[in-house]
Automatic annotation (TrEMBL):
Keywords on record: Membrane, Transmembrane, Transmembrane helix
The protein's name: ABC-2 type transporter transmembrane domain-containing protein
Phylogenetic lineage: Bacteria, Pseudomonadati, Pseudomonadota, Alphaproteobacteria, Maricaulales
Membrane topology, as annotated: Multi-pass membrane protein
InterPro entries reported for this sequence: ABC2_TM (IPR013525)
Compartments where found: Membrane
Segments crossing the lipid bilayer: 31-51, 264-290, 310-343, 355-383, 395-414, 446-468
Amino acid sequence: MMAANARPGLPKFSRIWLIAMRDFMGYVKTWGFWLSFLFPIIGMGLGFMFSNSDFDFSPPRYETVIDQTGVHGEAIKSFYAAEQAEQKAEAVKALATLLPEAEREAFRAQVDAEGADAGFATLQTRYPGVADSMELPTASLIFIDPPASTLSELAPYLDGDRRLSVGDKTPKLNGAIIIRGTADNPDPQYWSKNFNNAPAERLINRYFRDITKRNYLEAGGLSAEGYDEAMRGRTRVDVFDPAELSGTTEDDAVAVSMLDRLPFFASIGLAFFLLMTIFAGAFMLLTSMIEEKMNKLLEMMLASTRFSEIMLGKMLGAAMLTLASLAPYIILVLGGLIGFLIFGNPEQVAAIREAFPVSTILISLIFLVLGYVFYAAILIALGALAQSMQDAQTLSLPIMLMMFMGIGVIMFGFNAPDSPIVTFASIFPLTSPFAMMIRLASDPPLWQVLLSITLLAICVVGTMWICARIFRFGVLSGSGVGAIKNWFNRVVLRKSA
């Protein structure tokens, strides 16, 4: 067994591939893998089915108003209708990004003048499929006439014992707005069994807050309409990237848009993809090592296979399994991106291509590979030392904590990619795979990127060498954490056994 592993020469890829396929197929044949693989496909199918059916996950709430002041009841309904019209108009104006930049302001002006429906019809003429991919906001509250005149008579409806009659439907009454007092001093109340999620309550608060604002402005000789018009015309700040100054003048610089922010969101997605890859592969690496060690399969494999080939094969198998399990999500993202690049707005397509140069994609792939190999080597070594699943969980806890630290770096780096902490984390090998991918969107200095890659590569090589020694020790001796402790006491602390 030792002679087979003492032969000189490089690891043979055929044996590495054989071990990788053995681990890969061992998990692919399980029910759990196919359930996780088919979950997004089943989810999309159910979503498509429900979207084309009459089933509604959030049906409108039927509300009624009993207004003893004679003033606020109808005003609340009109206030809600105005809110809905404004939300609908804003949603349509947000679709102006589908149009060329020269037409966007005219389109927004059309929506303000003619309404959301006219603007949406314009988009349907230019882009017929927009209606299928975009749903405009619909009213979540439907106000009906009170089925009773007093609160005590409304109680059976609010409890659900009696149903309403609205056309051919018999919905239940979700809530009742009761306004007592006088017009100048109202006492609003909201009655509902579902008081944790009460959009009608929030509507009433917004309505009376607007009343308070109007009264305050009118006391100073101002109108709420004038205030709203002034706010619409207020000075707004434009955000610019200093990179715009290269090759152009200050007056020709273009403000930062949502497309300019897209690389930051993509970098977060890549960093989380690396985390998911490590998390998904960690369980496979640990469990396969423990099972094969306990069943003496590793000793049999060592009769014809080197330690390095086993390690590389298992790492490759875990990577293949992770990519296979995430394949539906990867295909969805790539399919959507390719479809957008082919059929999308030419201006937006050009902006996306400029935002994601080939160099950035290649550097991201380098960090993905190096980060995965770094953590996978550590997990394999820990699996070789573990004698049971309890040992594996205890040994893997520090690695999991480091990866959770990576999550913190990702979130912090998104808000402050230029902070000294993130800069240090992008160079420090334990966190550089996550932090540097976040910083790539803000175009860090090239020397920092090269230094980070170099340090991470050196750390990966060193980790592989150390983990290979630990792997060899754990497999051949059959020892676990106790042997490491005894060695530390004997060699480092000079204690007798």
